[in-house]
Write a structure and sequence with these properties.
Blueprint lengths: L3 H9 L23 H9 L8 E5 L5 H10 L2 E6 L2 H13 L6 E5 L13 E4 L5 H17 L5 E4 L4
Parallel strand pairs: 1-2, 1-4, 2-3, 4-5
Helix pairs in contact: 2-3
Length: 158
């Protein structure tokens, strides 16, 4: 019997399984995809809908972005600093049914400009607390510039 993560990868026409430690260190952690049952619970919560924009910090191969965009019809932005994982996310985007509702940015999370459209953020333990604090400051500053309802989702935070 197939693992649920492999089944969902097939349904979404993507390849996101497997851990990647290739350029992780003490500040940026290895790629390890969020399990689909966790993402299903998030989508069923009602906290994300088609009018939301989710930013996924440390998106890796894009699993969160594709799954959440597929189920909620939201716009998803994945930020990834590892060029190899970023390229995999772009390849996945070409085949994914929800690919048009996703975008990926190669870069450091602290350099990402949080636009007023961003009102949801997902963190699966992507980096150390120093970087997390900088990212949270950026989200806070964006909120101050454009007040809006914002929700932050943490899965295994530092």
């Amino acid at each position: 019997m197939d693992d649920i993560n492999q089944v969902w990868d097939r349904i979404l026409h993507i390849k996101t399984t497997g851990r990647d430690d290739s350029i992780s260190d003490f500040t940026r952690y290895p790629y390890e995809p969020t399990d689909y049952p966790v993402l299903a619970r998030l989508c069923e919560s009602g906290y994300i809908g088609k009018n939301n924009t989710l930013v996924d910090y440390g998106c890796g191969k894009g699993r969160v972005d594709f799954f959440v965009a597929f189920h909620t019809k939201c716009h998803a932005i994945g930020i990834e600093y590892n060029p190899r994982l970023y390229e995999r996310a772009l390849q996945n985007r070409k085949q994914a049914p929800s690919g048009k509702r996703t975008e990926f940015i190669l870069g450091d999370a602290v350099d990402f400009l949080v636009t007023p459209a961003v009102d949801r953020a997902f963190f699966f333990n992507p980096f150390c607390t120093d970087i997390l604090c900088q990212v949270l400051d950026d989200l806070r500053e964006s909120y101050k510039r454009s007040p809006r309802n914002m929700l932050l989702f943490f899965y295994y935070p530092s």
